[in-house]
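In response to reviewer comment 3 from the previous cycle, which asked for concrete evidence that the modeling workflow produces usable outputs, we include below a single protein chain processed end to end. The sequence was submitted unchanged, and the resulting structure tokens are shown without manual editing.
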Amino acid sequence: MKCNQCNKPAMYQVGEGEAVKFLCNDCAFKHRALMDAQMEELHREYNMVASQIENTLGMYGVVPKYPLRPSPTVLAGNVSLHNIRISGGNVGVLNTGTIGRIDTAVSLIGHSGNPQEMEAAKALQALTEAVAGSAELTKQNKDAVLEILDLVASEATVPKEQRRCGAMLATIANISTIVGAACALQVTLGQYLPMLAALFQQKPG
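The workflow returned the following structure tokens.
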């Protein structure tokens, strides 16, 4: 099944009934970002009305309000977390929330005692460091691959029987497409993507 917005394989379903749409990873991330922005705007409008009501009543703190959403933390330059370390002149601006979640997943599965999960943790760490520090990838493609690694890392931490193995294998395969065949990063992908994919390969029987 193809994405309704492009020709990439569809991975997500949004909407219901006649309004249902099927989206690939890239389009799903854009859709989620748009929905988050719209929700944040609605929350701000509600909070403004709530403040106006309190001002009219002369009573403050009596109308419930949505808590302010923290802005994504971005970091320009080197990154050094518990497992992931990114340095060099090509790091650029990174969302430390995304990198931080991957780093946490690396810690969780890297110390699980399961050899396959430990190999996947090693792959996640190496791929994240290589992609974030790449001089060849555009910021858009770098962000797209890191978002995929974030998604895969999150799925890797759930119990084995609850993992969406088919969806994750297709998602992992999409990384090579985003990076591009001519990119030197393909050497790193060739080494570590199979290690990551092995975590989601189901044995027959």
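The chain has two domains: 1-69, 74-200. We consider this sufficient to address the reviewer's concern, and the full set will be provided in the supplementary archive.
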